[in-house]
# Entry
Amino acid sequence: MRIERLSRAHDRSTFRCGRAELDEWFRTAAMEAQQRNRSARTTVLVDGHGAVVGFYSLATHAVAYDASPRELVKGVPRYDAVPAVRLARLAIHEDHQGQGLGERLLATAVRDVLAAAEHVGIVLMTVDALDEAAATFSERFGFMRLEATRTRPALAARVKDLQLTFSSSREG
# Structure
């Protein structure tokens, strides 16, 4: 399996992860978000035949300083917003779930954020969790819940802490 930037060459029509909201976004909006309005970048995991096995999407973001747990903003100048990158979506095709591929994609997303942080200020990586199961998955890797202002869980972790969590032992 290999990691690639989403392109028109990838067949998105048959992807199904078991969550209609994620499937629909990937099939209909992922390319537009990436190419036309550049609001998100999507990376795919493909098998040896080029079939999409999973994907994640990253977007720029800012977190309200006052909504951040103190542990996450300790030492950060007190501005209205803390610069972040959001893991907006992460999904694994239902035929490949339970094989550790979600962790592999999360580790790759973290490496993408760390690479970006070499060139631009990023303090936090946030997760827009679809449900409690996704939030629990993220918490396993050090993400903390943000103040509840939405119906879906939102989590964040310091980029410098993620660098330690996703050391070479977890690289895919």
